[in-house]
């Protein structure tokens, strides 16, 4: 659509040379409006493409091919981010698309995340070749057609989904293990707290226990004291 607008603009400019000044201004205003509409159309189309791209595939989000250098990734990101920036379009989906674009660039510029993505793409290619009983020397692999590339992208989605599922499962198991370890720590802390409280209470009642024991000792009869105060009566025989 942009090419069409540019060609129309060029044709009208040549035609407007023979028109009156008023007609020229009116026609140029209409052409500018058409150009603006075309620009909005391009922005909306790109926002739609980004949001429909598989978000785990950063290459697809940025509309790039694997193996591209970092410099080209930055150039592509800058071009697309300027096109769909929320401040430059009224499309309500622009913020989501812009955020997804930014995350995709981050993935491709980080060695670990990009390596993981490249490995998943390579695994998808290998699985597809295995399913079709192909080798690296097969013509279909050396010069892939549109059908093979589409099947490769589909297989890449499957591999990425599986990898993400395993990552989340591992993260959940790790969090559960960390939760168990944390509970053990909390239980140990609570146990020590109860022991300290018990020791404090025991110490606070120490004087009372000693005083009670002393009082008990004072009131207790001496050994043999009762026997000395009384004589045993003799029983008279006969």
Provide a descriptive summary of the structure in words.
This protein is an all-alpha fold and 238 residues long. The protein is built from 10 helices and no strands. It has helices spanning 2-16, 21-52, 58-62, 70-84, 94-109, 111-131, 139-142, 146-204, 206-219, 225-229. Helix 1 (2-16) packs antiparallel against helix 2 (21-52) and helix 4 (70-84) runs antiparallel to helix 5 (94-109). The protein is elongated and about 130 Å long. The mean pLDDT is 82.
Distance between the termini: 147 Å
Helix content: over 70%
Count of helical stretches: 10
Which runs of at least 5 residues are low in confidence (pLDDT < 50)?
A: none
Largest sheet: none
Derived from helix and strand composition plus strand pairing, the structural class reads mainly alpha
**Can you write the helix and strand succession as a string?**
HHHHHHHHHH
Strand content: under 5%
Give a count of the beta strands, DSSP E runs of length 2 or more: 0
Principal-axis shape equals elongated
Q: What's the gyration radius in Å? A: 43 Å
Overall mean pLDDT stands at: 82
Show the helix and strand layout.
Blueprint: H1 2-16, H2 21-52, H3 58-62, H4 70-84, H5 94-109, H6 111-131, H7 139-142, H8 146-204, H9 206-219, H10 225-229
Helix pairs in contact: 1-2, 2-5, 4-5, 6-8
A few lines on this structure:
This protein is mainly α and 238 residues long. It contains ten helices and no strands. It has helices at residues 2-16, 21-52, 58-62, 70-84, 94-109, 111-131, 139-142, 146-204, 206-219, 225-229.
